Amino acid sequence: MNKLEKEDIQGLLIRGYGNLPSAKYLLYTGTQREQTLEFIRQLTPKITPASEKPANEAFHLAFTYEGLAFLELPAAVLDSFCREFKEGMAELHRQFVLGDTGENAPQHWDWGNESLHFILLVYGKDENQLNETLADIRQLSDATGITELHALPTGLLQGQKEHFGFRDDISRPIIRELLPDLPQEPDTTFPAGEFIMGYDNLYNELAPSPTVPPQMDPKNKLPEHRDNNNLKDLGKNGSYLVFRQMKQNVPTFWEYMKANSSDPSAAIGLASKMVGRWPDGSPLTLCPFQPDPSLSDANDFGYWEDDKAGLKCPIGSHIRRTNPRDHLVTEKSRKDSQEMAAKHRMLRKGRPYGPPLSPELDPEMIMQSPDDGQERGLHFICLVTDIRRQFEFVQNNWVNFHKFGGLENDADPVIGNHYQNERRKTDSFSIPEYPVRKVHPNLPNFTHIKGGAYFFFPGIRALQYLTDYE
Ligand code: HEM
Q1: Atom 35, ligand 1: which residue's CA is nearest?
Q2: In this predicted model, what pLDDT tens digit does every residue of 377-390 receive, in sequence order?
Q3: Ligand 1 mean position to 276 CA, how many Å?
Q4: How many Cα atoms are found within 13 Å in the side-chain-facing hemisphere of 156?
Q5: Distance 380 CA to ligand 1 centre (A)
């Protein structure tokens, strides 16, 4: 097993910074190349490596393809990036792959559809620390003529919840190389190459990575490509960062649950069927009739053994679509399902934004709270080495596919865009029940895309190369 080069890996790949609850995501575009390079050069020493556990602040930097082209990377280097990254999230064909059509189409986004060069993710131990850090960064951006397009706020919510009132961030893939002494369970641990370039992935191949011809690295900053010593590995220790700003319509979500249930407790039951976990995080598969607080961190479960039909956790629920674990109807065995599902995992690193509708995030209280007209949602972020096989596959084949798992007109009830295709709505949610299933019709969209982009999240040596390759 290869050792991770933690001092060269940006720390977000192995940490979530729960100890740094304040954060802002700054979206930039450069005006002049030289000045932009200077800005990045000055920021590079501040970038937090995975070898450090920061106590006060952390910084991470990632680039769009347009940003790398603006920095005038040689064509041979630009060409070596994967197609999805080069085309970008807002590209016309991609709108259909991701379901970003109708009201979710990029022309309605607040950002991501205009010139965007890079993103800086800044984390602080508290708001004061964050504001001080941001003031320093703004001085630097003003001095170098960089335009801050947006400063996206974030705010962690009580009890590790997201805005609908459900506990989030429970199921996380574990990188094998980080825990070499643990038993290597194939369905819960993953080779680093699934998330970090320059290491073997699940196919026992080096994760695909952008490269540089050696003559374009005269200062010899980059490591050799392991499988091709005629190339330098620009991707080594980097990743792709997928960002989607998803507005959550919390009053609409709970209005629907109330309107389709006999009482508040049944409304919470219906919402939990849609998520696949109870609000406290306990998985429906392990406790189908009521939440069990002792299971709120539980992640060691599957569907094959005793929930193939989805009587406990509906096949179309959010967690069962985004990670079908050991049961995919397209696969013949439990093992095949596990292997298939494993190839489509992501490291989720997003944070909520906006004020909670009810501070405790208790669904009963949220249901009683009047619409305050405020915007809130999730800055969904995930890190992957293969945008198409991991993020896009899940979004296209599992989240939005109306026939997922043998269903007919359903998409992910929580995040699906149900009105993306004029010919076929996907606005049903089916709950398998014996003897006949229950179908909830006319689901509104509970989330809306407000912006998004694909970024290259380089290793630290690669970051130095980007600003100094001539
Ligand atoms: C506003 C948007 C979203 C909300 C409110 C949301 C909410 C949740 C919640 C409550 C969980 C359960 C906690 C856990 O298992 O860790 C979860 C899990 C998950 N979500 Fe989302 N999510 C959103 C967007 C997305 C998107 C865009 C994707 C990817 C396309 C995604 C992929 C996943 C995955 C992979 C899991 C873990 C499933 C498992 O391993 O069992 N989510 N989400």
Answers
A1: 322
A2: 999 999 999 999 99
A3: 10
A4: 19
A5: 9
Ligand 1 atom closest to the Cα of residue 395 is: 30
For residue 138, is it within any domain? yes
CA angle, 202 then 393 then 414, to 5°: 120
Residue 363 located in a structural domain: no
- The Cα 237–Cα 12 span in angstroms is 12
- Counted domains in the chain: 1
Q: How many C-beta atoms surround the C-beta of residue 370 within 10 A?
A: 7
Distance 168 CA to ligand 1 centre (A): 7
318 CA → ligand 1 middle, Å: 7
- According to DSSP, the β-strands at 211-212 and 224-225 are unpaired
pLDDT of 329 > 60? The answer is: yes
Q: Is residue 451 within 8 Å of 110, Cβ to Cβ?
A: yes
pLDDT value, residue 24: 98
Q: Whose CA is nearest to atom 31 of ligand 1?
A: 322
Extract the tokens encoding 395: 């979004």
Which tens digits make up the pLDDT trace of 310-325? 999 999 999 999 999 9
Summarised one tens digit per residue, pLDDT across range 31-69 is: 999 999 999 999 999 999 999 999 999 999 999 999 999
The pocket around ligand 1, CB under 6 angstroms, is made up of 162, 164, 166, 168-171, 244, 246, 248, 275, 277, 318-319, 322-323, 346, 377-378, 380, 394-395, 399, 414-415, 447
Q: Of 452, 389, 381, 451, which Cα lies nearest the Cα of 60?
A: 381
Flag whether 80 is in a domain.
yes
d(CA 284, CA 276): 6
Structure tokens at 7: 């001092």
- Rg (Cα) of the chain, in Å, rounded? 22
- Structural domain of residue 132, as residue ranges? 6-243+453-467
Residue 70 falls inside a structural domain? yes
Measured CA to CA, the distance from residue 60 to residue 464 in angstroms comes to 14
Ligand 1: centre distance to CA 31 (Å): 37
Q: How far is the CA of 140 from the centre of ligand 1 (A)?
A: 36
